[in-house]
Amino acid sequence: MTLRLWILPFALWTPVLAAYPQSQISPPLRSFEMSLVTGHLDYGTYFTGPGGVRFSNEDGLGYGGQLSVRVWRRLSVVGTVLHGSSNWRFEEVPLVGSVTLNGASLWFFDAGPRVTIPLGSGVPVELIAQATVGAIHYAIDNPLFVGETPNLAFGGGAGLAIHLGRRARVQALVKDYIASFRSVEDAALLGVEGQRANTIAILLGVGVGL
C-alpha cells in the first residue's frame, strides 16, 4: 500500500507530460515560492485503546500552506503547515461493539531542505525530494476526552512539479510524517496510550514564485 502511494504522483502527471510541447523552455528559478496545498491524510494508529479494545484514527482531508526559499540553484529550504481532523474509533468495546468519537484536530509543522531535479532543458518538469523535521500537535475536544499534546515529527517526501508559465507551478507530493505520540491528558487517565506511527499525506499544491 505504501509503495503505491509513493508512485501515485508520478502516475497522475504522466498524461500531462506526454501532451506538453517538448520545445517549451523551463522558467527561471525564483528565490521565493508560496503555495496552497490540499490532499488526503492517511493517519496512522497514534494510540492504543485500554485493555483489549482496538483503536484507530479515521482518515480525512487536509489543507495548508507552504513557503520555499531558494538557497542555491536546485536547493531550497521549505516549510509547511497542514491542518486536518479525525475521528476516534474504538472497536470490540464490551457491551457496545464499536464507538466513534469526533473532535480530534491535528496541526502538522515541518521544515527542511528540498532538492529539485529537472527532467530536461526542454521539459518544464522537476522531480522533488525533501527531508524535514517538525511537530504534530494533536488535540481533542469531546464530552468524553479533552486534551492536547505536541509530538516531535520527522518527515520525507517525493513528487513532481510542473511549471505553468514563468511564475506559477503545480506539484504532486507524497509525504510521510513519523512521530512518537504522547497520549492526551483525559485519554491517558482511561488507559489510552500513545505510540509511534506514520502518517501518509498525498498532497496537490499550486505555487507562485516571487
Account of the protein in words:
With 210 residues, the chain is mainly β. It has a single domain (2-197), classed as Beta Barrel (Porin). Helices cover 11% and strands 65% of the residues. It has helices at 2-19, 185-189; strands at 32-42, 47-48, 54-57, 60-72, 75-93, 97-118, 125-141, 146-164, 168-180, 193-194, 196-209. The strands form 2 sheets. An 8-stranded antiparallel beta barrel has the order 1-4-5-6-7-8-9-11. A two-stranded antiparallel sheet has the order 2-10. Strand 5 and strand 6 form a beta hairpin. The relative contact order is 0.23.
Helix/strand layout:
Elements: H1 2-19, E1 32-42, E2 47-48, E3 54-57, E4 60-72, E5 75-93, E6 97-118, E7 125-141, E8 146-164, E9 168-180, H2 185-189, E10 193-194, E11 196-209
Antiparallel strand pairs: 1-4, 1-11, 2-10, 3-5, 4-5, 5-6, 6-7, 7-8, 8-9, 9-11
- What is the tally of beta strands? 11
- How many domains, in number, for the residues? 1
Mean pLDDT: 83
Gyration radius, to the nearest Å? 20 Å
Helix content: 10-25%
Give the terminus-to-terminus CA distance.
37 Å
CATH architecture: Beta Barrel
Number of helices: 2
CATH fold group:
Porin
Sheet with most strands: strand arrangement: 1-4-5-6-7-8-9-11
CATH class: Mainly Beta
Percent range for β-strand residues = over 45%
* Low-pLDDT ranges: 1-28
Biggest beta sheet summary: 8 strands, antiparallel, barrel
- Output the helix-strand order: HEEEEEEEEEHEE
Question: Which overall shape is indicated by the principal axes computed on the Cα atoms?
Answer: elongated
Which structural class do you get from the secondary structure elements? Answer: mainly beta
